[in-house]
Amino acid sequence: MTINATLINYLHLCHRKMWLHYHAIRMEHTSEVVAEGKLIGEESYPQRADKNQEVEVTSPWRRTSPPAPLQVERGETATPPAPLLYNERGSMDNVVLTAKIDFFDAKNGVVYETKKSAAKEWAHVAQVQFYLYLLRKNGVEASHGIIEYPKLRQTERVTLDSEEEAKVEEWIEKAVAILENENCPPKLPISKCKSCSYFDFCWVGED
Ligand code: SF4
Question: What CATH number is given for 2-63+89-197 in this structure?
Answer without folding.
Answer: 3.90.320.10
